[in-house]
Design a protein that fits this description.
Layout (H helix, E strand, L loop, with lengths): L13 H9 L4 H11 L17 H7 L3 H4 E6 L2 E2 L4 E5 L3 E5 L25 E5 L16 E3 L15 E3 L42 H17 L23 H4 L2
Antiparallel strand pairs: 1-2, 1-5, 3-4, 6-7
GO cellular component, one term: plasma membrane
Keywords: Ion channel, Ion transport, Membrane, Sodium, Sodium channel, Sodium transport, Transmembrane, Transmembrane helix, Transport
Membrane topology: Multi-pass membrane protein
Amino acid sequence: MDIRMKREPEDFTPDVKAAIKSLNLDPKIEDLLTKLKLAHTSDVRDAEKYFHPTIRVVDDYGIPYDSMILSCSYGPEPCSDMVTLYSPDYGKCYMFNYVGIHNSKDTPVKKARQAGRHHGLQLYMQSRKEDTIPLLTRELGVRIVVHDPRSIPLASENGIDIRPGDMVSVNVEYTEIHRLGEPWGQCVKDGDVLPNNYSTVPYSQADCERYCIQKEIFRRCHCYHIRFLEASVVPKRTVICANSSEEGKK
C-alpha cells in the first residue's frame, strides 16, 4: 500500500508553478487546476475533498424532483408529501413517508398491510448523464435507502445502488430492537439526552458515532469535517474545515 503525505501548492516545483501562472487563467480556474495537480490518482478521487459543493450549488444544480422521479405511487394512490433532503454526498434527495422527529402535523406513518408490489411503494425514475456534474459524480444511477420514517437516512453507509435500465424489487423486513435500561442495563430511552448531548430519535449507533467525532473535531478546530457532515431537510450553512494550510490562512 502506497501511503503519501498530502501535498500542498508550496510543494510544486518552480517549473510547475510557472507553467500554471503562464496560462493567465481566471483565478478560480487557476485554483481548480492547482487542486487537480495535487491529486495522486488518475481519477482525482483523493482530491475530492477540495470540491465539496456548497448549499447554493446543491440547491441550484441538484436534480429536480420532476426530472428524477417520473412516476411515484403507494398502493393505488399517487405519492404525496415528498420531502427534499440536502445531502453533502448525494446532492438533492427525496424522502417518502418521512414524518420527522417533531411531527407537528401529526402526519400518520404509512404502513403496508400486505406484501407485494401492488401494496407498497413503486417508483419510475430516470438518471441521465447530462444531469450530473462530472467532476463531482463518479456513478450514474440512483441510490435507494430504506430507513425509519422519523430519521434522516445515512445514504453513504446504507442503501443499494441501482443502474440505469434496471428494474428492481426490494422486499424489506424491519426489525426494531428496544434495549432495556435500569436495572437490566445502562441503555436509555429514545429521546433521553446522553452524556455527550446526543438525543436524536430514534437512536442510531452509526449516527451517534458521527456526532461524537464531529463534536470532537469542532471542539479542537472550531469547524466541521466534510466527511462527517449530515444530510438536512433544511439547508444549513456550516463552517467547513480547511483542506490545506493555504486555505487555513485565509
